[in-house]
Amino acid sequence: MSLWQHKLVQSVQWRNRLRQLVTPKQVAQAINVSESSLKRWCDRGLLKTVRTPGGHRRVAVADVVEFLRKSGHDLVRPALLGLPSTTGQGALAVSRARDQMRDALLAGDVELCRRTAFDLHLAGKSVSVVCDFVLAASMHDIGDRWDCEEAEIYQERRATMICLRLLSELRSSIPAPPERKPSALGGTPECDPYLIPTTMAEIVLRQNGWRAQSLGSRLPFATLVAAIRDVRPQLFWLSVSHLDDVDRFLAEYRAFYDEVRSQVAVVVGGRALTESLRRQMEYSAYGDTMQHLEAFARTLQRSFRQEPREEVSDRSGMSKRSRSVKRPDK
To answer: Are the C-beta atoms of 31 and 41 separated by less than 8 Å?
Structure first.
């Protein structure tokens, strides 16, 4: 088995661990509380459980992770949940985590990258913070080093692949939103091959209760229109990190927006969207960071409880346009 095949198997094994079911007793021992306390939390709905065919309670490891994030309890014995023994053992400041992540990505140290991301996640840091201040910041640093010939191309490409695997694992740690929650779609235009930003957007929205799905990269606007027509999301994000032909992009984007503007809130972002370019575009909101996307999505969710037609109030620091707000289907 090659090194990359081995790392792929490790990533799949990690995601499978998060889907595994464990007993309340295992959870209680893992976080060093009494089994009776844990059962009370389950009875109150603080920790989601399922029932076996024989009527016994079981807990998904991903739901335990989410409970720990919200409750602040420490993960004392992670091995009882099938997790690596170092999981949750390092209380990192975000700034130090960024340096640790960058160095681990450059070195190709997948396990240290995983531990850094999940220690922050278990410590209650939102996915948007992990994405903005750790993953994106680390990749930006690596890109700068590559430009200055202080890092090799293979290191940048390897770091990209590791980031995508980490994001996939973070996604697995977030419980799936119920069907009644609003939906969101997104991706990149045909000229943009970058997957990391649109993958981040999906996970950030899922953590905020959206049934979000990234459609991937290099998508023609015609197929994005078809996706919005078929899925009928309440929010659509467009990540634009690279443009070959600005004039062509503007023409195609304007046609796309004219067709979908009455159906969905369109959020745009990405380093290729300069201020001068944005002045020539219409959109519901623009954001520089995943935290901006998160704040706008929360504002939009609140608007679903108001009148169907209104101006969306935006307290997120994002620029916005007056638009119709579409309620999620009941």
So the answer is: no
Angle at 19 between CA 14 and CA 24, to 5 degrees: 115
DSSP bridge partners of 185:
213, 236
Give the amino acid at 8: L
DSSP H or E stretch at residue 192: none
- Read off the pLDDT of residues 154-191 as tens digits, 9 standing for 90 and up: 999 999 999 999 999 999 888 889 899 999 999 999 99
Q: Where are the alpha helices (DSSP H) in 80-238?
A: 94-107, 110-122, 127-129, 137-147, 153-172, 196-207, 221-231
- Candidate CATH numbers 3.40.630.30, 3.40.50.280, 3.40.50.1370, 3.30.70.20; the one for domain 183-320: 3.40.50.280
Would you say 267 and 284 are in contact if contact means Cβ atoms under 8 Å apart? Answer: yes
pTM of the model: 0.73
∠ CA(319), CA(321), CA(325), 5° rounding? 120
Q: And the tokens for 176?
A: 């799936």
The percent helix, strand, coil of the chain (3-state, each to 5) is 50, 10, 35
Q: 253: buried, middle or exposed (CB in 10 Å: 19+, 13-18, 0-12)?
A: buried
